[in-house]
Design a protein that fits this description.
The chain has 361 residues and is mainly α. The chain is 64% helix and 0% strand. The protein has helices at 8-28, 40-49, 54-57, 69-79, 86-90, 99-115, 122-136, 139-142, 147-159, 163-175, 181-190, 196-213, 225-236, 241-255, 263-288, 298-312, 323-345. Helix 7 (122-136) runs parallel beside helix 10 (163-175). The chain is globular, with a radius of gyration of 24 Å. The two termini are 34 Å apart. This is SMC5-SMC6 complex localization factor protein 2 isoform X6.
């Protein structure tokens, strides 16, 4: 009822009652049985009834639940007691995305994962995390604060039992949720970075996405920060805007009937190359500036500074008419400054690059 009621105030009131009942059962019950929490199938059915396609909830073929869309439809018909046609039972309750109802479901799941950490198996948790990430890409949800999403993500990550094994799998799966650079950066920045598991996932995911955007062959994700910085250096060398532009031009020429491109198309490709550089640099910052480093890693940052200067900064020629170049160069300066701070202080430093330019998706 909370998830389908079209009155936002009533939905919030039902959420309050549902949470109160759950907390009371957990706190005052002498029963050894845990309070009821919705199964993965229950959660999927709730979003399915809102009109969210099953393939959207579980978009990856190699990561599917042990039920399918037909199962959800059958359960819905059973709930209706056999009254109503198949068409009516499949009809979405909402004509537009119900942000309030979705957030109320997420809030309740946050409570459930907090009071019953062992309520879901690792595979179910991965499917829930991917579901949340995919839903967060909806444009309507991008317009509202996703604090409740992040709170639930913290609980889900904390509840994964075999964390070190699941991190690489999770990174590769999240990486497949979109092909657009801006969306991929959005997914990285959705991961909470104020917990150790969140920072680890954020860094590893950034490396996987950098590899994807550079068309690099997938390789195992390094676990230690030393290895991550070493891999980052190799990627940084490939982020020269002019080289990225050459790749785009060659690809576009191959698509053209006469094998040529005009000046306007070349300018558009240059904008795309700098846009890609901007996204890649943000991901570089996520890997290198989101956690503590020891003094023994100073030499790695010295090498990174040299690569950033040589392969990116020196390749950018600013022009008053081409402001996007200045945007990228400004980001280079901010990253370089953070690395210099780490080098000079030689002590654990935490920091975060803040997004100051969000291009259209």
């Amino acid at each position: 009822m909370m998830s389908v009621h079209t009155d936002c105030i009533v939905s919030v009131q039902i959420l309050s009652t549902l949470m109160e009942i759950t907390i009371r059962n957990d706190t005052f019950s002498d029963s050894p049985v845990w309070p009821w929490i919705p199964s993965l199938s229950d959660i999927a059915a709730v979003f399915f009834n809102m009109g969210i396609d099953f393939r959207f909830l579980f978009p990856l073929e190699n990561l599917q639940p042990d039920f399918n869309e037909d199962n959800l439809v059958s359960e819905t018909q059973m709930t209706l007691g056999g009254n109503g046609s198949e068409d009516s039972s499949c009809k979405p309750i909402f004509s537009t995305l119900p942000e309030t109802n979705i957030l109320n479901v997420v809030k309740f799941l946050g409570l459930c994962t907090s009071i019953h950490p062992e309520g879901y198996q690792d595979r179910e948790i991965m499917l829930l995390i991917l579901m949340l990430f995919k839903m967060s890409l909806e444009k309507q949800l991008k317009q509202i604060p996703l604090v409740d999403f992040q709170s639930l993500l913290i609980n889900l990550m904390k509840n994964i039992r075999d964390w070190n094994t699941k991190v690489p799998e999770l990174c590769l799966a999240i990486n497949e949720l979109s092909s657009h650079p801006h969306n991929l950066l959005w997914l990285v920045q959705l991961v909470p970075n104020w917990t150790s598991r969140g920072r680890q996932l954020r860094q590893c995911l950034s490396l996987v996405i950098i590899s994807k955007l550079l068309d690099e062959k997938h390789e195992d994700i390094p676990n230690t920060s030393n290895l991550q910085i070493s891999v980052l250096y190799r990627y940084l060398v490939q982020m020269k805007p002019s080289d990225l532009l050459k790749k785009m031009v060659l690809k576009k020429r191959a698509e053209q009937p006469n094998g040529t491109i005009d000046d306007s198309l070349h300018l558009e490709l240059e904008k795309q190359a700098y846009y890609l550089t901007y996204i890649l640099l943000h991901l570089v910052g996520e890997v290198s500036c989101s956690h503590s480093f020891s003094s023994g890693q100073r030499k790695h940052f010295v090498h990174l500074c040299g690569a950033l200067e040589k392969h990116v900064k020196c390749d950018i020629r600013e022009d008053a008419r081409l402001f996007y170049r200045t945007k990228v160069k400004d980001l280079v300066a901010r990253i370089h400054g953070k690395w210099q701070e780490i080098i000079q202080n030689c002590r654990p430093i935490q920091g975060q690059l803040h997004d100051f330019w969000v291009p259209d998706s």
